[in-house]
Amino acid sequence: MISIKNLSKIYKSKNRDDVTAVDNIDLSINQGEIFGVIGYSGAGKSTFIRLLNRLEEPTDGKIIMNEKDMTNLSNKELRNERQKIGMIFQHFNLLWSRTVFDNIAFPLEIAGIPKEQRKSKVQELIELVGLAGREDYYPSQLSGGQKQRVGIARALANDPKVLLCDEATSALDPQTTDDILDLLVSINQKLGLTIIVITHEMHVIKKICQQVAVMDNGKVIEQGEVLEVFMHPKEKTTRRFVQQVMGEQVEQSPIHYFVKNYESGKVLRLHFVGETANQAIISKLVKRFNVEINILQGNITQTKDGAYGTLYVHMDGPEEVVNEAIKYIQQTSVELEVEENA
Amino acid sequence: MLRELFPNVVMEDLKVATNQTLYMTGISVLGTLILGILLGLLLFLTDRQGILNRSLNFITATIVNVFRAIPFIILILLLFPFTDWLMGTIRGPKAALPALIIGAAPFYARLVEIALKEVDKGVIEAARAMGAKTRHIVFKVLLPESMPALISGLTVTAINLISFTAMAGAIGAGGLGDLAYRKGFQAWDFDVVFACTVLIVIIVFIFQFAGDFLSKKIDKR
Fold first, then answer.
1. In chain B, what are the domain boundaries?
2. Which of residues 130-189 of B touch A (CB under 8 A)?
3. CA distance linking residue B101 with residue A85, whole number of Å
4. Using CA atoms in the order A68, A166, A48, B136, what is the torsion angle rounded to 10 degrees?
5. Burial class of residue A140, CB neighbours in 10 A (0-12, 13-18, 19+)
6. Shortest CB distance from A93 goes to which of B123, B132, B133?
7. Contact B141 A158 (CB under 8 A)
8. Chain B 86-125, CB below 8 Å of chain A: which residues?
9. Contact (CB, 8 A) for B90 and B80
10. pLDDT, tens digit, for every residue of A93-119?
């Protein structure tokens, strides 16, 4: 459990106004969770993640991580604590002068692990991130995705409890991004470590996070379970992020827009939240009831906790059958909105 | 044929002088390497906030700038009392060493500082995030990651040093410069001057080649 209270970072400047990069953030992050922080560049998210391991010194506030008050450590204690907090970076930050093997061994050298133990640990990590056979390559001989795998292995070397990911996939292509995200999820499950992800891509949040905090202008403006935030984005910034993965038309097509095109039947708006989308509800309707279903518009996206999205359908048939079908839908967890035909 | 081209050149003199030049260059390159890296690291590591850092940086930078501003021939004269006290003599190749090192180290220190500034800030940050001490950052990040630039900088400095040894020779340090000046110029035997020139150029070429080779070989970027 990581708890962050009143965390602030103010950059003092002699010539210009002070800049408040992180403004009074309160968060608590559960053990073993994948927690996402999303924001546009300049929102303060990179500063925020650097405050957690004190690469940046907080101006104010408290951070409790691994049962230790991070803001209250001596330099020596801080260095020891940092060994238990892994970090990966947008630009990987590998040492070009070291091979894959030696890069991963680097944090072990810092921790003073004897050579023989280092060797077996590095070998184990290389297997874990899928880089077997590349031990003697230099970073310049690797692709971006492979470099990030080295970064991840390096971050895990001292068996951290927490992994901080600073825009870890922002420099990668979409396919490689997904591979790295899959790796992060499998590490999260295998090792049970807490992962904090900083990103500007909603795709990343959607794919791996359980909890999300939206940052704007140094503040957390919205926070909660990913699905909940997807479903009911309150702030404008959040809505823009949700649109990144849902497309522009979300919430923009009022149901009556479709209605005028049909003379009989009903137009339904099905709202999927969570696992319900896996119930194959449309095909069940068609099999059980004698109705015609025409999909008008839809947008479903998969998040870590199930599908989320909206489907507009036109249902036609004998009136009582249609009503029965509607009742059936209402018994499921799909949210339903019905527009009668005029 | 060589006898006809260089009638006044004594092989034994040439050999002794070359050895002296190589001795002076070799030892002073080593000394410059150590002192220059120390000063360069000091300049780099103190270039940040804090009163102690700021004042240390100011003092180091001032020393480096002052010694870099003094022309070498004057520096040798200036250092005579120091040399006499340190080496017990002001003549011969050994006596040239303090001036050579003190003359070249500030120049190399600036090259070291530039090389260290070129090290990726992200890599240093990553090392700090792993809990690295300053010692780790210096020996495992800064120096290895800047090694090609440190070597090519040392090559430039070494070639400067060869030319410094020749200058030191003119006031009694021995070596090829000394030979060219006394046996060549003062006796008006220009074949001696020419022979010394050829040897110095060869030495410079060897240093340049070795430096370039090494710098390229260790660069895995």
1. 12-218
2. 130-133, 136, 140-141, 144-145, 147
3. 45
4. 60
5. exposed
6. B123
7. no
8. 120, 122-123, 125
9. yes
10. 999 999 999 999 999 999 999 999 999
> Chain B residue closest to A79 (CA)?
B131
- With beta carbons less than 8 A apart as the criterion, state whether A59 and A9 touch: yes
Chains A, B: CB contacts within 8 A come to: 68
Mutate to test the interface with B, among A97, A152, A167, A196 (most CBs of B within 10 A): A97
A-chain CB neighbours of B141 within 8 Å are: 95
Q: Are strands A34-38 and A60-65 parallel, antiparallel or unpaired?
A: unpaired
Domains of chain A: 2-244 (3.40.50.300), 250-341 (3.30.70.260)
Name every residue whose Cβ is closer than 8 Å to that of residue A128 and which is 6 or more positions away in sequence. A153, A156, A187, A190
Looking at CA atoms only, how far is residue B35 from chain A in angstroms? 24
Contact B131 A107 (CB under 8 A): yes
Centroid of chain to Cα A125: 24
- Interface predicted TM-score (ipTM) of this complex, two decimals: 0.86
Q: Identify the CATH assignment for B12-218 out of 1.10.3720.10, 3.10.450.50, 1.20.1250.20, 3.30.360.10.
A: 1.10.3720.10
Pairing of strands A162-166, A68-69: unpaired
Q: Which pLDDT tens digit goes with each residue over B122-156? A: 999 999 999 999 999 999 999 999 999 999 999 99
CB neighbour list of residue B10: distance below 8 Å, 6 or more residues apart: B183
Contact list in A for residue B133 (CB cut-off 8 A) is 79, 110
| Residue in this structure with the two tokens 């967890």, named with its chain if needed | A333
